[in-house]
Design a protein that fits this description.
Length: 173
């Protein structure tokens, strides 16, 4: 009989520990179950961004000037290597003039597209290699390869480009 009370105390302690472990495990399971829901949410956000990137590149490749420029914010900056930085309004006017004069894009293929979404989910950086062929108004064609970096920001639930950097690279690169 003298062993009954110590054994009972030990059993009670073990039961309490088991109950605590069950609660911890339950919390852990609930947390793990939320991950797929969060992943689906981010998947939808990522899908919208990737769709915007694809539409942006397609609009450029097909000379759809107004759709292409609809992806830029009004105060976006664009940087074209040796040509330097310019504001998007001047770039837009340049493209309107090029199209009206008979120039345009004949090829614009993006490859090795990498997208990084910043913490908070409202800013992303997309980088890619670009193979491009343009036609000047006089019919002269030029082919180039470049690195492009686009900084996207989600504004009013739409992904917009706030900055674009395009730098030509040599054939050896």
């Amino acid at each position: 009989m003298s062993y009954t009370k110590p054994v009972q105390r030990t059993v009670n302690k073990i039961k309490k520990k088991i109950e605590i472990m069950r609660k911890i495990l339950s919390c852990f399971v609930i947390i793990l179950m939320s991950f797929p829901a969060m992943a689906e949410h981010h998947g939808e956000e990522n899908a919208a961004l990737h769709a915007a990137i694809k539409s942006f590149n397609h609009a450029y490749a097909t000379n759809d000037v107004e759709t292409y420029f609809s992806f830029y914010t009004d105060d976006a900056t664009v940087y074209f290597g040796a040509a330097g930085r310019e504001n998007v309004a001047d770039y837009h006017e340049l493209w309107i003039g090029l199209m009206e004069a008979g120039g345009g894009v004949e090829l614009n293929e993006a490859s090795d597209i990498q997208v990084q979404i910043m913490p908070g989910g409202d800013v992303a950086v997309a980088t890619s290699l670009i193979d491009n062929r343009t036609r000047s108004p006089d019919g002269t064609k030029s082919t180039s390869r470049a690195f492009e970096t686009d900084v996207w920001q989600k504004i009013d639930d739409k992904w917009k480009i706030i900055s674009l950097h395009y730098s030509g690279i040599s054939a050896e690169e």
